[in-house]
Design a protein that fits this description.
The structure is a single chain. The protein is of the alpha+beta class. It has 2 domains: 171 residues, no CATH class; 148 residues, Alpha-Beta Plaits (2-Layer Sandwich), CATH 3.30.70.1900. The chain has 7 helices and 19 strands. The strands form 6 sheets. It has a 6-stranded antiparallel beta sheet, with helices on one face. Strands 11, 14, 15, 18 and 19 form a 5-stranded antiparallel beta sheet that branches. Strands 1-10 form a two-stranded antiparallel ribbon. A hairpin with a 4-residue loop joins strand 16 and strand 17. The protein is globular, with a radius of gyration of 20 Å.
Length: 327
């Protein structure tokens, strides 16, 4: 099952400001927005004034179209959606620091999924371009010093895959498969599990964002995202009895503790020329019951996030160890 499902280790981008850079406390939107504009400037051959790729003759072969306007596919089964997930996640630094001066560093993670990994040179080139354009309020400029593969999965030392001085890049960086995740999941408690939601998590229930989730709602949203990623970016059809699995999630696993709370956050959309509410829940929740069948999916979601807005780093959670429970 899922023999072709692969994703990258966290790729750490090290930025060195050459001018003061001013960013909001949550930096996901600033990084994603600036990067998107730089990516289009870097690769778009037609230089069209329209804000989407619709109607462009190069749409089906353009890197920008694939990365940012991922074409819809026809989903079978119970999943229905008006969009398809993008093959990347930007994880901004967790610090609330808002001003970065020359001599300091700004570091964030990038995770690439499936075919998205083939486009790493475009990501690196676009962040180099963004450094010349400028980032954040006032458009502070920076240089891209290096990109390293954190190799955190195996606890190995970081490996540099790009050097900003020589402009050299290597293809030797770590990836993970679903089989690797299944092995990791064997070390989890199959009866009790606490999840810490680190960044705002946007899960919808009956059409509206909510933090009143149970294990069935969590699992439904998680499987929806993972199955889309597998099908769209890894050419992998997930053959599972979805309805039966969700029924088990509802009947066999209960919520025994919830410390979730709402976190309001807005981003500015240049395309829509307005602010968009992107709030979600953070905090912890504990589930108890027959969890064994669900653990590989939960472990995979720990790396690939859950819910909407994952390209901004939203929906990141951490599976707590026994000693981390705070109640």
């Amino acid at each position: 099952m899922l023999e072709n499902f692969r994703f990258s280790s966290p790729l750490k981008f090290y930025l060195a400001p050459t001018e003061p850079i001013y960013l909001p406390a949550y930096k996901g939107s600033a990084l994603r927005g600036g990067f998107g504009a730089a990516f289009k400037r870097t690769v778009c051959l037609t230089r069209l004034d329209n804000k989407t790729c619709a109607g462009c003759l190069l749409q089906e072969v353009c890197p920008y179209s694939y990365i940012f306007e991922t074409p819809r596919i026809n989903h079978a089964g119970i999943w229905r959606t008006s969009y398809d997930p993008h093959p990347f996640i930007i994880e901004p630094p967790h610090e609330t620091k808002q001003e970065y001066q020359p001599g300091e560093q700004l570091v964030f993670n990038l995770i690439l999924i499936g075919k998205g990994m083939d486009y790493l040179p475009y990501f690196i080139l676009s962040f180099r371009t963004l450094g010349r354009i400028g980032l954040g309020k006032g458009k502070g400029r920076y240089s891209l010093v290096k990109v390293v593969s954190s190799n955190s999965f195996q606890g190995e030392p970081e490996k540099q895959i790009y050097d900003g001085m020589s402009n050299a890049i290597t293809s030797e960086w770590e990836t993970r498969s679903f089989a690797d995740i299944v092995k990791e999941a064997r070390g989890l408690d199959c009866h009790r599990l606490t999840l810490h939601f680190i960044t705002p998590t946007r899960i919808k229930y009956r059409g509206h964002p909510t933090m009143q989730i149970d294990f069935e709602i969590f699992t439904r949203n998680l499987l929806r995202r993972l199955s889309w990623l597998a099908e769209v970016h890894c050419d992998e059809k997930w053959e599972l009895e979805w309805r039966k699995l969700l029924s088990k999630a509802n009947e066999r696993v209960k919520t025994v503790h919830s410390g979730l709370r709402w976190y309001d956050w807005q981003r500015y959309s240049q395309r829509q020329n307005t602010k968009i509410a992107m709030g979600g829940f953070i905090g912890e929740i504990t589930f108890e019951g027959d969890l064994a069948e669900f653990l590989p999916f939960i472990k995979l979601g720990e790396y690939l996030h859950i819910g909407r807005g994952t390209v901004y780093g939203l929906g990141k959670y951490h599976i707590a160890t026994a000693g981390e429970a705070s109640y």
